[in-house]
Write a structure and sequence with these properties.
Layout: E1 4-6, E2 13-15, E3 65-70, E4 77-80, E5 85-89, E6 100-101, E7 117-122, E8 125-130, E9 137-139, E10 142-143, E11 150-152, E12 157-160, E13 163-169, E14 175-182, H1 192-216, E15 225-231, E16 237-242, H2 245-260, H3 263-278, H4 283-312, H5 318-337, E17 340-342, E18 355-356
Parallel strand pairs: 4-18, 5-6
Antiparallel strand pairs: 1-2, 3-4, 3-13, 5-7, 7-8, 8-11, 9-10, 9-12, 12-13, 14-16, 14-17, 15-16
Helix pairs in contact: 1-2, 1-5, 3-4, 4-5
Length: 357
């Protein structure tokens, strides 16, 4: 391949003498660090036809990072972790490296400056700032004033010179819909009594767990708010919440998987409890059976909660991990024994492996 030029747009192998790709017409470049930024004519984008991002593709996101989908590229660039300041630009020898180096994406040709723009992240969201670039920065095709902060929403289109990308991320304000099914009384109507006795305690348990997660990470406490509750004909109950981002992700992944592995034990305890409710006189007969089972399950819940605490907040002291683990175990127990459980996740479509910064 050393005697060929690979098109960055369609990956076609071209002869070294070619200046344009034989397949798609994209200019072929030798990507060397540029000391200056070329002023970009307004009509240059017309000669660099790239596929626009589509809404029907699978979007790769991360609960603790940002995904950037460059126009014409299938794989996203991902900045993971608690990075508060993300610099976009081009690498130049002797200068500091930008967080996202766009040199491999024809940045010089597209008019991207060495220090072009910055995305600032906070607990309240993301903000975009142009750094006085040569060819400017646009947000949803609105030209930005240099050095002024602009609020950035997930899915917004950002253009640096003529290089465009969409940013996808999550914040504490991100809205999620959790689909639940009642395992005890499937198809139950959504009556005021059902809301009070079944659904409200479940949402309160989610809210309590989210705030415990916030505290252990030293984050501002999330205010979990209900945006919509909907009952479907198939018995599913859809609950749309804001402020419960982390706990919903945890419930739909690790907690659901953990509970599935212990379904027989949980159902056995539930059946014993129903016997006592139906006939209080059987309590003494049931107690010798249920107490050891309940003790064992609670021990397993505590171990699981402490493990999650270590994964989420590894920098906590051992004593604080135990404290938060015990608090989380109480919230987990309420969710695990609730008759309302998340609908089993369907097999997910395969996604492309993202480039990680």
């Amino acid at each position: 391949m050393d005697n060929m030029k690979i098109c960055t747009a369609c990956q076609f192998s071209n002869e070294l003498s070619n200046t344009l790709c034989e397949r798609c017409g994209t200019p072929l470049l030798i990507l060397l660090p540029a000391k200056t930024t070329i002023p970009v004519p307004d009509n240059l984008i017309q000669s660099l036809q790239r596929t626009q991002p589509t809404d029907d593709g699978k979007i790769v996101t991360s609960s603790d990072g940002i995904s950037f989908y460059l126009v014409g590229q299938e794989k996203p660039i991902m900045v993971k972790g608690e990075v508060r300041k993300i610099v976009f630009g081009r690498h130049s020898p002797g200068e500091s490296m930008p967080t996202v180096d766009l040199t491999p994406y024809d940045a010089h040709l597209f008019g991207v400056s060495r220090q072009h723009a910055i995305i600032f992240r906070s607990d309240n969201g993301c903000f975009l700032q142009d750094q006085g670039s040569t060819n400017g920065t646009w947000l949803n095709e609105k030209h930005l004033i240099a050095h002024k902060l602009y609020a950035l929403e997930s899915g917004d289109l950002v253009r640096l010179g003529q290089l465009g990308f969409r940013a996808y991320f999550e914040t504490a304000k991100t809205v999620y819909t959790l689909e639940l099914v009642d395992e005890v009384t499937p198809g139950q109507q959504l009556t005021p009594g059902y809301l009070e006795k079944r659904l409200t305690p479940h949402i309160i348990a989610l809210s309590n767990a989210q705030q415990i997660l916030d505290k252990m990470q030293d984050h501002p406490l999330s205010v979990v708010s209900i945006r919509k509750i909907e009952a479907e004909e198939n018995g599913r109950i859809s609950v749309t919440l804001a402020g419960a981002r982390q706990i919903i992700r945890l419930v739909e992944s690790q907690l659901s998987e953990w509970r599935t592995a212990r379904t027989i034990l949980i159902e056995r305890l539930r059946a014993l409890n129903e016997r006592v409710r139906a006939d209080a006189q059987t309590a003494e007969d049931v107690k010798p059976i249920s107490e050891p089972l309940l003790k064992d399950l609670r021990s397993q819940i505590n171990e699981f909660a402490i493990q999650q605490t270590e994964n989420i907040a590894p920098n906590l002291s051992d004593s604080m991990k135990k404290v938060y683990g015990e608090k989380l175990a109480i919230a987990f127990q309420a969710l695990l024994f609730s008759p309302l459980q998340p609908v089993a996740a369907q097999t997910k479509d395969a996604v492309t492996t993202p480039d990680t910064v």
